[in-house]
Every structure is written in C-alpha cells, then in structure tokens.
Write a structure and sequence with these properties.
The chain is α/β, with parallel strands linked by helices and 212 residues long. It is built from seven helices and eight strands.
C-alpha cells in the first residue's frame, strides 16, 4: 500500500492509537505487591561477629538483612539454610542490592569467632555483607526466640536453637531493625525472600503495621 493511502486509512490510525494507549495505560495497571507488614522489633542483643568485634542491635540500623540460624557444621536442614543464604547473597551481588546476611550460630559452644571466619571463607562469603554471630548460649537463644517469635523459656533449656534450626526459616529485617517477614528456605521461600527483601531495600516496602 502507498504511504499516502496508508495514512488515509482509518484502520491504520486506529491500530496506532491502540498501541500507544496500551503503553500509556500499562504503568497504571501494573500490579505492585503490598509491602510486607511490620511484625515486631528485633530484641536488644550484644553478640560477637566473626571478626571478634561486638555486634549489637543498633548495628542493624541502616541496612536490610536476611537472618537465619546456621552453624559452621551443617548437616540436614541447617545445610539447606546455609545454601539458601549463599544463593541469596549471590543474587543480591548480581543485582547490586545492598542487602546483607545475618547468620546466627545454633552451636555457640563450639562456634567461636575463628571457627566462623573459617566457615565464612570456605563458602566465599563477602565479609562486608555476611555477618556471622556467636556468643554465650543464653544470649544467642534470646535473640533467636525474638526473631522467630518463640515463647520464653525460663528454664533455659536451649531448645530454641534446635527448634529454629529445624524450622529452617529466613527472617527479613528492615533498615530500622524491624522484622518484616519469615520465609521457608526451600526454593519458593528463597524466591519470595529475595523479592520481598529487594522490595524493602528499594524503599517501596514502606511500613504497614499489622492489626492487633
């Protein structure tokens, strides 16, 4: 068809307007998932990082973290959690996301800072983005109970570390030190944790309080 006849064709202009309309409307109709709600705050704690330096609740402020309970020797569910954290860290690095890993040992009696450093180096974890915590067992357990919302244990049985390890869960912590979600360490859970954490880190995951 000649160009002049094409320009006089009403079907041509209708098609052109239709294509333009789709591109204009698409940003308005694109689904934007709701930000994950604020579940609760992270309890106050002071533990030791792999560097041997103290790591406190206030050190969480300003960065988004994915936290989990994982020991240096990791059979079974613990190994799955470690692999999930490694996968997440690599994904964050690939996308340039400023999101860090907070690994909390389930065996603080054997995982001293030197053991944490060796384990971290063995999986080629970035020390700037991977913080591995240890310390006195009661302090570690108190942090784990707070992150996973486990009931208090006045008797101090230490079962929280075992339970959290068996749960094999991932915890999303925002820049204000607030827990924003918990996810499984299987493929679907890791995928959700990845996208939810990037949502929060981008600033689009504004706080949405839960109803109580």
């Amino acid at each position: 068809m000649e160009p002049r006849r094409l320009l006089r064709n009403p079907y041509f202009w209708g098609l052109l307007i239709g294509i333009a309309g789709v591109h204009l409307v698409r940003p308005l109709t694109r689904y934007e998932p709701a930000p994950p709600p604020v579940l609760h705050g992270v309890p106050d704690f002071t533990l030791s990082a792999a560097s041997g330096e103290p790591f406190r609740t206030s050190d969480l402020n300003g960065r988004v973290y994915i936290a989990a309970v994982v020991s240096t020797a990791c059979p079974g569910a613990c190994g799955r959690v470690r692999d999930a954290l490694v996968k997440l860290q690599r994904g964050y690095q690939h996308h340039g996301a400023d999101i860090c890993v907070l690994a909390i040992t389930a065996t603080p009696e054997s995982d001293n800072p030197a053991a944490l450093r060796r384990a971290r180096d063995a999986i080629a974890a970035d020390p700037e983005r991977w913080t591995w915590l240890t310390g006195p067992a009661p302090r570690v357990e108190a942090l784990v109970r707070g992150l996973f919302a486990l009931p208090p244990d006045p008797a101090g049985t230490g079962d929280a570390l075992l339970l959290a390890e068996q749960l094999a869960g991932l915890v999303l912590i925002d820049r204000d030190g607030l827990v924003r979600g918990r996810y499984a360490s299987d493929e679907l859970g890791v995928d959700e944790a990845f996208h939810r954490s990037r949502h929060v880190a981008s600033g689009r995951g504004g706080r949405k309080q839960t109803r109580g």
